[in-house]
Amino acid sequence: MKKVLVEITVNGEPHQVAVKPNCTLTQLLRDELNLLGTNQGCGTGECGACTVMMNGEAVNSCLVLAIDAAGSEIISIEGLAKGGKLDPVQKSFIEHGAIQCGFCSPGMIMSAKDYLKRNPKPNEAQAREAISGNLCRCTGYIKIIEAIMEAHKFG
């Protein structure tokens, strides 16, 4: 299969990557750029483990072909911290013990970050809505919801 050159900006850095036409954004991030924080879960957009920001909006990167992301600005979990300082959502997840095995955490954090741009102080129902596309097999979501509701305190 002939490869296609994709120009993409990831976490503020421009990249030119040759990928197969069926390569997903998740695969580009993990396999080509070695950004392993974006996890490959279901591969069908059901679990949210692969959530990243694409042009400022949360997307399931397993559902986006790398060639369709060409020219886009991608922020992965590795790009949230700035100057060695964790993002407030990351801090809140840590402080509330909302990270268990860690597999779902990057996607949860990215979904929460996207939601909190529009609603920085959500109530419990809104916090649940923020992660409605993300699955966690470790918890009852209580600490995750608390972390989302109180992320504004860490900013």
Q: What attributes characterize this protein structure?
A:
155 residues; alpha+beta; Ubiquitin-like (UB roll); DNA polymerase, domain 1; 2 domains; five-stranded mixed sheet; 5 helices; 29% helix
Q: Low-confidence segments, ≥5 residues, pLDDT <50?
A: none
| Average pLDDT score | 96
With strands numbered from the N-terminus, the spatial order across the biggest sheet is 2-1-5-3-4
The named CATH superfamily of the largest domain: Beta-grasp domain
Fraction of residues in H or I helices: 25-40%
What is the global morphology? globular
What Rg do the Cα atoms give? 15 Å
Helix and strand element order = EEHEEEHHHH
Which range does the strand content fall in?
A: 15-25%
Backbone structural class: alpha+beta
Q: Report the span from N to C terminus.
A: 47 Å
Tell me the number of strands. Answer: 5
CATH topology of the largest domain: Ubiquitin-like (UB roll)
Provide the CATH architecture of the largest domain: Roll
Number of helices: 5
CATH class of the largest domain: Alpha Beta
Number of domains: 2
- Largest sheet at a glance? 5 strands, mixed
